[in-house]
Structure formats: structure tokens, C-alpha cells
């Protein structure tokens, strides 16, 4: 698989990573099977999808434990990215950026992951009660202690303000400027896909100008861009899509032209090419420092996603994808 670099330290990873959250959190709990997910992680590493993206809150904690089963055997094959800064309660999630907590959380993640170092440690959310410089300073100390190799910032909190258009990531960039004064940022994780392009306006160019890697979260649009979801089929109550404004039956039907466009492009490249692979190839084409991290929990999907690195979109393809209709949500 093609290799891409993250940050000024030129940390090399496979061009398509693996988002591990669906294995343990947020998607259809009845379909989560540990042994099946372990096989999927092994398959990803076999194919060169070396970046494994997790967080201590996924489960909580169980996703890191699952990855630890693989890393115990194959640590040298993997690039491990995990996150800190969110605590999960019974019915709520709260931020915690206190330095003491960050240090304890890192040690706990290392134990669960069965490793002595985390390749990329990301701040999941800023704690509004703690200056972000203090949180980031504690994370920088972990680098100096040899427990962490590089630091990243997760910008997923911006998602709730999607309607603000190309100003969506202004707050993220202000936050990045602040933490850069404390310790270098190696990577930013934010949503980027054919139907969520806001990062292209300001955040992606900002990262490119500074040699910061970009991890494209949800590059398959929470599964919608795969073309495998049926409008009106519904989701299990614990599935985040059951409350997502783009996954009502009405909006899924309204957004089918986007999937149809992906299918048209796929058809030009052969019967074996899928809409999901086109969607990932589009993300890869946006910049050489972009690494999509599609979520998957089965070997089949991991294999399909990894094959997207061999798909080269033409100028005609990119123009057609650029001109697809904007995605609609229930607020529209």
C-alpha cells in the first residue's frame, strides 16, 4: 500500500487507516463481535493499513482492550492513535483536560493497548474549565517521558455547527494556534467526505501549510456513501445514526443522488469497483498528507477499503464528484 506521512516528524503510515470505533461503540451493538473485529484488525495490518485509530472512551475502554489483543503480537506492524479528554457516564459525556487526569489516562491506555508507547496521542475535546495550553503541556510531557511519540488534535466537536459553512473550523484553527505555541501538532482529525467537505475551505489548507497531517474521519459518511444502506430500514437505538439528521428515512432518500454519482464513477473503473472505494479515492485525492480512517469491523470491509488506494480518479471523475448535490439533513 502507498505510504503517507504525518507531521513534521514524517511518521509513515498506510494511506488508508482503520477506524476502530464501530467495533465497540456507537454502531449497532448487536453486531459487535470481538473475535471478528480482531480478525479485521489483523487483516488491516496484513494489507498495510497500519494506522489504527481508537480512543479510551470507545466502549468505554473496551476498544483499546480489543486492540491490545492484536498489538501484543504485532506491535511493530501498527501505528497506534488513541485519544484522551472525554469521560463517559451513564447518560452523558464530559470533558476532562486536567493535567493529572491526562497523565493517569495515558498510563491506563498503555496498559489496555499492551504497549509501552503510543504513536499519536490526540486531545479528543478541549475542557472548557482548563486552559488548553495546560492540557497540551501535560500531553507534551508524555512525549518527553517516552510514553507518546507525537500529539494530535481531534476536531470532531465542530460537527454540531455544520450549518456555519466554511467558517466551521475557525474555532479549531484558533485552538491549534494556541497549542502550537506549547508543542508541535503532528495531526488533526476532522470529518471529510464527499458529502461533508467543510474542512477543504480552511482547515485542510491550514494543516498543509504547516506540514500537519490530516486524518479524515467518517470518509464513508457513517456508511451512507457505501450504498449499502436502505432508506427507512432503521437503526438500532444505540446506533448514533438513529439520531443523526442525515439518517432519517426522508433525508436518506433525498440524498440518494450522491450515492448514484459514486456508482456512476465506479462503473467507469470496472465491475469490481464500489461506491465506497470511489468515496475513499476522492478523499485521498484531496492532498498527499490526508489519511482517511474509515470505520470497519469485518475483514470484508477492511479489504475493500484498503483496495481504494489503487483507484486513480480521472479529471472527469473529480469534476463529476465535485458537482454532486450538497447533502441534505433534517434541518434543511
Write a brief caption for the model:
The protein has helices spanning 34-47, 62-74, 99-113, 132-144, 170-180, 203-209, 249-254, 256-268, 275-284, 299-307, 315-322, and strands at 3-6, 11-14, 18-19, 51-53, 79-84, 86-88, 93-95, 118-123, 148-154, 187-191, 213-217, 290-292. It is α/β, with parallel strands linked by helices and 332 residues long.
Describe the secondary structure blueprint for this structure.
Blueprint: E1 3-6, E2 11-14, E3 18-19, H1 34-47, E4 51-53, H2 62-74, E5 79-84, E6 86-88, E7 93-95, H3 99-113, E8 118-123, H4 132-144, E9 148-154, H5 170-180, E10 187-191, H6 203-209, E11 213-217, H7 249-254, H8 256-268, H9 275-284, E12 290-292, H10 299-307, H11 315-322
Parallel strand pairs: 3-4, 4-5, 5-8, 8-9, 9-10, 10-11, 11-12
Antiparallel strand pairs: 1-2, 6-7
Helix pairs in contact: 1-2, 1-10, 2-3, 3-4, 8-9
